[in-house]
């Protein structure tokens, strides 16, 4: 296929879609290229490798177009890889080199996997937040955070048990007080006839007028 002097060859290799480009890549070719790649993504393609080693000239809008497509394909669980090592493309892509997966040739491309995809997504996140966290530090932070959460849970659980114990003690005390009051009332009723006969004197302190 030929589009305004930009040669495009589309081929599938081991389940991966390859776009091999050669010639000048100008701004007027950006919409057509974007439409083609979006079509591949919509058709279910999740790994696309774009070989641009034979690109002779490139417009500054091309890397921005690929950056937007990168977010689209990664949002669907895929990835977009690039193959080139010529100076013109290296200079054009240099502001985004930490975001793109760029390889010198086909042999340099790793077999891939979940960790590779996760690592690249981590680069996108670090680019947006301005922070880079190495994996060992991330693990330490996760373990520390888990420890804090576990400690907080234990403290809350201990406080809850202590509150329940105090509630039980208060309930037991109130029940004992209620039972003692009833027993005192019964005793007073029993000795009341004896007080009337003068056998037992009421020694309880009398209330003032």
Characterise this structure:
With 209 residues, the protein is an alpha/beta fold. It has helices spanning 30-42, 61-75, 87-93, 114-129, 135-197; strands at 2-3, 6-13, 16-25, 47-58, 79-83, 101-103. The chain has a six-stranded mixed β-sheet with strand order 1-2-3-4-5-6.
Summarize the structure.
By secondary structure, this protein is an alpha/beta fold.
Counting DSSP H or I runs of 4 or more residues, the number of helices is 5
Tell me about the largest β-sheet. 6 strands, mixed
Structural class: alpha/beta
Distance from first to last alpha carbon: 116 Å
Radius of gyration: 40 Å
Work out the strand percent.
15-25%
Give the overall pLDDT as a whole number: 81
CATH top level of the largest domain is Alpha Beta
Helical residue percent? 40-55%
Annotated CATH homologous superfamily of the largest domain: STAS domain
Count up the domains. Answer: 2
CATH architecture label of the largest domain? 2-Layer Sandwich
What order do the SSEs take from the amino end to the carboxyl end, as H and E?
EEEHEHEHEHH
Write the CATH fold name of the largest domain.
Transcription Regulator spoIIAA
Strand arrangement within the widest β-sheet reads: 1-2-3-4-5-6
Poorly predicted spans: 113-130
Beta strands, count: 6
Task: Looking at this protein, list some descriptive labels.
rod-shaped, 209 residues, 6-stranded mixed sheet, 55% helix, Transcription Regulator spoIIAA, alpha/beta, 2 domains
